[in-house]
Specification:
alpha+beta; Heat Shock Protein 90; 2 domains; 5-stranded mixed beta sheet
Length: 364
Amino acid sequence: MTSYRENKKRPFRLSAKDLLTTAAAILIACLLCGVLSLFGKSDTHALLIFILTVLVVSRLTEGYFYGVLTSFLALFGVNYVFTFPYFAFDFTLSGYPLTFCTMLAVSLITSALTTRIKQQEKLQIESEKETLRSNLLRAISHDLRTPLTSIVGASAVLLENEKELTGEQRRVLLKEIKDEASWLIRMVENLLSVTRMAGDTVIRKQPEALEELIGFAAQKFRKNYPGILLRVAIPDELILIPVDVILIEQVLGNLLENAAIHGKNLTGVTLSVALEKEKTGKSQAVFSVENDGAWIDEELLPHLFDRYGIWGGERKESDGGRGMRIGLSVCAAILKVHGGEISAENLPAGGVRFRFSLPLDEET
């Protein structure tokens, strides 16, 4: 983590962005003063406009240099260009020293406050990242311990009691090992997605046919959960959705798996898609994953999509710690970078519905 002392030791370098910001602010101030001078003979507006310009530049740029530079340029503009006698310096103007001191003080104070706030924000962000990393590692260790223990235990039983076990008992143990290993693979996929979206990574979206997107997720679900009925309902027309296919397939896989694992006493899952209009009038595809099992605790619903599934308290797992909310928080992060949203609700007749939206390009 970068400390405040380390930031102070960094050498000063001119920033093209800050220079452009300073130049744009001064240019706008000059244009505004020129326009206002056409409608009146008073020169007082120039002083107020340039003081405001110093304040804006000091707030939008890094460090003290640009605010102080703007103060001197503003003083030049007020004295030389926009105050009588025009295009001539007159250091005998009433209040001139006070004007200079005021502009310089405004720039220094604003720059100091802005620099301190930005440094504190950076430190706070770094601190939050460290906390999230620690919470994520703690959550992962909790979620991985159970399947790893099951795999080790089942394999040990197979090795130590190979001759005593019947064929059916061996199949049961091998199936347990397979199921737990498959779950570990899906957990690793979620973690890789978190890593992939960290920092300033830009996802690549390509138009993908809705039918193919749904078909792949449905096929994978039916293969992993053959005993659960999956119903699919999508529009008949061809719909192209701009997405990162791998990430959205992971969202669908996480939601379907979540319905199968955590939907106690369910008999089936329904995956449906409908076209709707956003508040802005743009089209969006709305996906729904419903199950007819048990409800989710109402206290848990608002926290399902918290980052990494952790909100500062003890984890309230009722199903052996299968990391449901880690998968759901990954879904929320993926949909956020796609410009979509996700929500969950308990159905009146029983079961849970997860809904998420993906914006559509008007051309598609």
